[in-house]
Amino acid sequence: MHNIFYYNITKMSDELYSKEFELLDYARQKEILKKADINDRKRSLAGDILVKKYLSKLYGTQKEKIEIKKGKHKKPYVINLPAHFNVSHSGNYTVVAISDRPIGIDIEVIKEFSAITAKKLFNEDELKYISGNSSTRKKSLMQKCFYEIWTAKEAYLKYLGTGISGGINSLSFTLNKNGLLPDKKDINLSYDYSIPGTVMAIVTPKE
Fold this sequence. Notes:
- The N and C termini lie close together (10 Å).
- By secondary structure, the chain is an alpha+beta fold.
- The protein has 6 helices and 10 strands.
- The strands form 4 sheets. The protein has a 3-stranded antiparallel beta sheet with strand order 1-5-4, with helices on one face.
- 37% of the residues lie in helices and 27% in strands.
- Helix 5 (124-131) runs antiparallel to helix 6.
- The protein folds into 2 domains: 2-100, CATH 3.90.470.20; 106-205, CATH 3.90.470.20.
């Protein structure tokens, strides 16, 4: 079982940003300050806030006692709770998935995509899923289908903990009468559309 929490950074005042930023350790502050854009900084900080807040609530632990480290590919993990989490952000939103098992999440705002990029990175079945059976398929639907594939691939890499270095096609799909099916049989892939105008993909291990 997993839980998803999200935060709209337009609600983060400068005062709240400054207050929460000061609570971070020096190393984390340096990481955030490397981001030139203030909204990028807010997205990153929102992830820290959500993780600590909801790990504390779900596991009954004081936020100050939660210890988080980074793995080989810089994927953060909790060292003193039986919990896994993953963070993603796009547009105005930062999302956090928390589970008692490994988990990967990716969110993307649905927008224009490059057909050249799709042809370069996606297989034939994936491209068919995007284009559908009609030359007049609505553009908005094609965009949604593109980001369903993209977020799934990203979420899988984050689930593995490799990040983009694992290769975007570490997860591929085949298309049949049942729809688009992932080639990995040891995972569960689900989607969340609760934030308007976005697609979220969540990858967890098969029960």
